[in-house]
Known about the structure:
Shape: elongated
Distance between the termini: 28 Å
Radius of gyration: 28 Å
Structural class: alpha+beta
Helix content: 10-25%
Number of helices: 2
Number of strands: 12
Strand order of the largest sheet: 1-3-12-5-10-8
Largest sheet: 6 strands, mixed
Strand content: 25-35%
Amino acid sequence: MRRTTRALAGALLTGLALLTSAGAATADDPSADPSPSSSDGAPGPTEAGTTFRTATAIQQDQRATAEASTGDYLYWVFPADAGQRATVKAKITLPESAARHGTSTWQVDVYDGLRRRQACMYGRQTGKAAADASSVELTCVLRTVRAWSEPWANDPLPGSYYVRLTVVDLPSADLGLPIRAEVEARSVDRGGAADVDGTLAEPLVPGASSVEQVSDSSATDDDGRTRVSLGSEPEDGWASGWWTNRWLWTVGGGVLGALAAVFGYSLTRGTGRPSRVPPGI
């Protein structure tokens, strides 16, 4: 009986230690680097849209570039699925300092498929470039995309995400100077820690059912109307697959519950057994 009790107690403690370590590993660490490490992305497009409707489509881990003029609004769009926490990086290469007349302030904004501006958890969303600076870099780390949300909430949902890059403050004499912009979107998978009860019926991809998807954002149809270039869906589809690490917690919790029940039963059975009466009394 003692051996059985010790074995059950050891298994119970081991299981609790494993689950505790797994929970610590999946918890958010505010001191960690918000930008996930990955290899260099595949070559991306070399132009940017100037409105939401003409935004240039890119994939995650794909670096897009564009030659533009200071003062232009530049737009890109990329897909993000449930459970992903996206990080958008932008770099603006400025003209020669001799051609500029002062400091400039640049800003990157991210909007979801409903064109709702999404707040950045952290990062340098707005950056000021000195008169002699050669470039300025911006970063926006979004909240984790949820599979479902209340209608009144502003939670990020699966679908298209628009990146808008522009200058918000500069001397008027610097308007129109040439710049080079680089944009890249990456994400980390938050796993079962970001799962919620419920799923979105359709991803937030405006016009996906009524507008033909094309690779060239300037293409037009027979009526002369511009066809919108939409970000293609993730390679494995939207919210595809049934596996999440919550299954590990469910199975682990069931095993620990069974071990705890057996352990408790063995204790009560040992203490509830009637003592033997010595013979001759």
